[in-house]
Structures are given as C-alpha cells and as structure tokens.
C-alpha cells in the first residue's frame, strides 16, 4: 500500500513540474535587465546636455593611450593629454517644480584632478541664474563641489556615500570635470513647488506668473533667447486702478522690470521698462533683442504683488517692437 501511495505522489509531482516548465521557459527568455534596471537610463555624450527628463544619467571616461617602439628598442607608452573642460547636465522643468539630484555612484578621483559639482540654478561663463540678488541663498550655499579620495591601500574598498541636492527653482546643473578617467551615475526627479519664484522659461507656456507671496524678495523669469514680452495682468505696488510704465526709480520699491542681457546675470540687464500699478488689460508688446530676456518682479514685502506675463521668441519681423537691444 505504501508503495502505491509513493508511486502516486511521484506521478502527481512529475505532472505538476511538467506543467510548470513552460512558464519557467517563458521567464528564462526575458532578460533580467528588464526588471532590474530602470527603463529611463540616459548615457551622456555631449559636454553640454540640456534635459527636462527624469531618470538615471551616466557618464564614463576611459583613459586612452598608445604604445610604440622607439628607435633604440624601448617600448614606450604615450598617454592622452588631460582635458580640463568642465561639462554639465542642465536640468529644466515646469515652472512649478524643483529638481532633486542624487549621486548614485561616483568614481572621480581627486588625485587625477577630477571634480563633480551641483549648482542650485544655472551657471554659464561665470554668471548665474538666479543672480546673487534674486536667490534666497548666498552663492556659497548654492554651489557644491566634491570628488573621490583614493585610499592608498588597494585592499580597502571605497565606501559609497550618496549625496542628494535639491534646487530652489526649476533649473539646476550637475557639472563634472574628468581630465583622465572616471565615471558617475546620478538620478534626477522633479518635485512640486507650491511657491515658485524664479523661473527658467522655455517659451512654450501660454503665460507665466510671478508672485512674491507677501515677502520682500525678487522673482525673475529668464528666457535664453530674444523675446517679445507682454504684461497680461498685474497688481504691483500701491497704484490701484492704473498702470505706470515709468516706475524704474527709487520712489517705487515694488515694480516689474523688463529687459535683457547677453549673459545670465539679470542684474546687469539693459532695461526696457519699469512697470507698476493694477490692470487686467493686456499691455503693449515689447521686443527684447538680447541673448537673454528677463522679467523681474521687485517687492518690498509691503504688498502681495502678482504679474501675468506672456513671451514668445522674437525674430526680424519684430524689430518695430524693439524696446531694448544688447550689443552682440
């Protein structure tokens, strides 16, 4: 009787395994990378990479060399010269979002002159968005630089310490300088910002909103192109029921400044107009023929200022609307 039960049990197990094998074969055919790796992995190839995508961003540089035999029979190895170029991943997202960047892995040696960095905002040619007068933090609390220290003991593995950085606006930069060799992987995601102030504009939105939320602060919209600007509506300062386009002097502490510059520093911009007052009627178009267009809301903190702005890219047909032109 026991032998019959054992035989029956073996037959049941064999039958169950036979049914399970087809499913196992289907699982084996799938690459494990499909489930282990995230789908949005971006390999960096350009020195200046501008993106609004999230996910993992990776970069790897291998030191190249060439070998040859000299005339006297010696075998020589020639290493490629070091590159001191600073590259960057320039993140830009929606106006009401901020950027969170986390260093997942880095192997960028300090001894080889490597350097990684994060900028709360954008940096180009030594100029910053937002400029030092518009950002709520001093520059030394916005720029972070680091690299990996190599242990002298080859048997001691370097411990990985993740770093996380968060921007205060919808633009940020992760910079890297790798002269010889190194690699890193960073992750980026975008988080809702309930009170946006400084905005990097792509120029595709129907309008943008600048608001001080009752605080004493400057808030700026920056577009990296010549633009035609219109004030759609505003409530700025003490003048109620009218609009003044001549508010750019010391008697007006709350105002909207429209202008442009050749760099990111909007504090040095060529001004088109200083506007204050209240209106729900669209104002005249102003063409700013500069490399960078800026609309800055300056607030004393005594008023809840708010302005709605539209902008579009300017072309040669808008020259009759020009109110500010920068030297090229």
From TrEMBL:
Its main location: secreted. It is found in: Secreted. The keyword Transmembrane does not apply. One of its GO terms (cellular component) is extracellular space. GO terms for molecular function: corticotropin-releasing hormone binding. Keywords: Disulfide bond, Glycoprotein, Secreted, Signal. Residues 1-20 form the signal peptide. Residues 59-182 form the Corticotropin-releasing factor binding protein N-terminal domain. GO terms for biological process: hormone-mediated signaling pathway; negative regulation of corticotropin secretion. Residues 215-319 form the Corticotropin-releasing factor binding protein C-terminal domain. It comes from the Eukaryota. This is Corticotropin-releasing factor-binding protein.
């Amino acid at each position: 009787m026991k032998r019959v039960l054992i035989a029956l049990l073996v037959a049941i197990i064999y039958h169950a395994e036979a049914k399970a094998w087809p499913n196992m074969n289907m699982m084996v055919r799938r690459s494990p990378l499909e489930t282990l790796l995230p789908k949005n992995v971006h390999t960096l190839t350009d020195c200046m990479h501008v993106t609004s995508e999230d996910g993992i961003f990776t970069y790897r540089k291998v030191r190249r060399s060439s070998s040859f035999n000299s005339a006297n029979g010696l075998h020589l190895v020639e290493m490629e010269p070091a590159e001191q170029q600073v590259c960057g991943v320039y993140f830009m997202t929606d106006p009401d979002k901020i950027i969170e960047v986390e260093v997942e892995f880095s192997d960028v040696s300090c001894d080889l002159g490597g350097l990684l960095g994060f900028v709360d905002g954008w940096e180009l040619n030594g100029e910053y968005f937002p400029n030092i007068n518009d950002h709520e933090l001093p520059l030394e609390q916005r720029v972070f630089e680091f690299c990996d220290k190599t242990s002298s003991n080859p048997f001691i593995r370097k411990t990985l310490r993740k770093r996380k950085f968060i921007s205060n606006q919808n633009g940020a930069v992760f910079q890297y300088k790798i002269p010889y060799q190194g690699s890193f992987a960073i992750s980026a995601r975008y988080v809702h910002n309930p009170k946006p102030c400084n905005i990097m504009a792509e120029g595709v939105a129907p309008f943008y909103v600048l608001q001080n939320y009752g605080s004493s602060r400057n808030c700026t919209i920056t577009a990296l192109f010549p633009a035609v600007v219109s004030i759609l509506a505003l409530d700025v300062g003490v003048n109620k029921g009218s609009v003044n386009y001549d508010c750019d002097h010391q008697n007006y502490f709350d105002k909207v400044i429209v202008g442009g510059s050749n760099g990111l520093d909007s504090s040095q911009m060529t001004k088109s107009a200083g506007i204050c007052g209240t209106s729900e009627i669209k104002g005249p178009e102003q063409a700013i023929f500069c490399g960078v267009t800026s609309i800055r809301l300056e607030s004393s903190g005594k008023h809840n200022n708010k302005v709605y702005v539209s902008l579009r890219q300017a072309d040669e047909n808008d020259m009759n609307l020009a109110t500010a032109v920068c030297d090229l």
